[in-house]
UniProtKB/TrEMBL annotation:
PANTHER family: ABC TRANSPORTER PERMEASE PROTEIN MG189-RELATED-RELATED, ARABINOOLIGOSACCHARIDES TRANSPORT SYSTEM PERMEASE PROTEIN ARAQ. It comes from Ornithinibacillus xuwenensis. The chain crosses the membrane at residues 12-33, 73-96, 108-131, 137-157, 188-209, 242-263. Its main location: membrane. This is Carbohydrate ABC transporter permease. It is found in: Cell membrane. Belongs to the binding-protein-dependent transport system permease family.
Amino acid sequence: MKVKKRFSLSRFFMYSFLVVASFISIFPFYWMFVMATRPSAAYNSIPPTITPGERLVENFLAVLDKIPFWQSMWNTLVLCTVVTLVVLFISSLAGFAFSKFKFPGKNALFLAILLTMIIPPQLGIIPQYYLVAKFGLLDSLFGAMIIFFLNPLGIFLMRQYISQSVSDELVEAAKLDGCSNFRIFRSIVLPIILPAFATLGIIVFTATWGEFLWQFTVLRDPESYTIQVALSSLNSTNNVDFGMLLSGVFWATIPLVIVFLLFNKLFISSITEGSLK
């Protein structure tokens, strides 16, 4: 009986902690939604406003009047999708090579890739800008996305997942059957690492969606703006309409929620498999 009570008490504290943590995580998004439905004056009101208002549509129409919202959303969607697909392709191939092949300098090269993760991205803006300008890619989506194609974190995650999930014996058996390296990757490795694909895809997509500094540096034409750059133009005056600004931020967050809901099962299965291993 004592053990049962102790277990119930620990479970109560665990669920209480999860409820509090969930509330803390969700509340900023709820408050953003509340501010998106209120006039700008509600932003600094005391006590704070925590109930939705009636200006969600009005504030959003004001956003549409100020910036090319839908064009910017489309640009961002294209940029994030292309970056995510390219990162998944390059990272999975590189991870496969680093985990299952032996070649001179493999460990040194992998270490060099990992070391790039400790370099602040701001340090590379000037040389990256110079190269992008040299190739005539300024003010283009390709120029805004090209520096994100090589992702050290993605290569590391894929190497770790493939080395644990794909046995060396399976790869050797496929080679004995006459499979080429790329066919082994396509027919054997790829189906096994789909959960890792979902995890890395969500990480890359959300990180690229929230990227601002590089996009702000290379994009100048409003027609090529991503949503982050377009929303920043709403904050360029002293008289900021916070209701309008947060309305734009709220609608710009919806695609991220949709992406997570679509791939969360694979994301969770990837975490579960890792914990079981």
